[in-house]
Write a structure and sequence with these properties.
Blueprint (H helix, E strand, L loop, with lengths): L2 E7 L1 H4 L1 E4 L4 E4 L3 H9 L2 E7 L5 H6 L9 E5 L9 H6 L11 H17 L3 E5 L6 H8 L5 H8 L4 H19 L3 E3 L2 H5 L17 H17 L1
Parallel strand pairs: 1-4, 1-5, 5-6, 6-7
Antiparallel strand pairs: 2-3
């Protein structure tokens, strides 16, 4: 039996991809990933749900009982908004799923609770998004002009996501938790657009393959 690791996260590590041609989500298969992990001495369990936030992670942390390490993969939903609601009242203030200060507290609390379980907390930063694709995706269900009025400019989508990424990185550092840097390997890739799916949020098949390869290298290197 290899080292027991639980991945606690959202749709990124669940393996969700967006098929723009068919207008629906599909899943990236995990069989090869789990088999390679086992070959490297890692017994991986996934507790991941589409739409999950750090608060959801706290509610499901008990599913990681008995693990020697827990990989935390949150932030992408925490920073997201109810876009139809934003479009309905674009001159009002709107809060994301988990506002920055709450997200920081919730993320730090997860790190603490993992340690209290006797496991090592491992943090993962956020794969980047494509703001233009994401804006087009938002506009499928919300009035894009009204959303843009609230945003000010489309690039805010990327900057806001980056802001939450920094919260993850600084919180991990402040708590002395290990951080696996997945973001850099995507940002520096010359085929960056090919690594992000049609919704601008979820990795493409190539992006998922890169993320899983980077995770396995990092997890088996310790």
């Amino acid at each position: 039996m290899g080292k027991k690791l639980t991945i606690l996260g959202d749709s990124i590590m669940k393996g969700v991809m967006y098929d723009a041609d068919r207008g629906r989500y599909t899943l990236y298969g995990d069989k090869a990933f789990l088999e390679e992990a086992a070959g490297r001495g890692l017994d991986i369990k996934k507790v991941c749900r589409m739409g999950a936030t750090a608060s959801w992670g706290a509610e499901h942390l008990s599913e990681a009982d008995g693990s020697s390490a827990v990989l935390l993969e949150f932030g992408g939903n925490d920073c997201n908004y109810d876009w139809p609601n934003v479009a309905e009242t674009p001159d009002s203030d709107h809060d994301p799923m988990l506002p920055p200060a709450e997200f920081r507290r919730a993320y730090a609390a997860l790190i603490t609770r993992v340690r209290e379980m006797g496991a090592e907390p491992i943090c993962m930063n956020l794969p980047p998004i494509d703001a233009e694709r994401f804006f087009r995706f938002i506009s499928l269900t919300a009035d894009g002009g009204r959303v843009l009025h609230w945003l000010g400019d489309r690039s805010l989508l990327y900057r806001w996501h980056e802001y939450y990424n920094r919260i993850i990185e600084t919180t991990a550092a402040a708590c002395g938790a290990r951080l696996i840097d997945i973001r850099s390997s995507i940002l520096q890739n010359r085929r960056y657009p090919d690594l992000i799916g049609g919704d601008g949020l979820h990795p493409s098949r190539k992006g998922h393959a890169l993320i899983r390869s980077g995770l396995l290298d990092a997890l088996s290197a310790q």
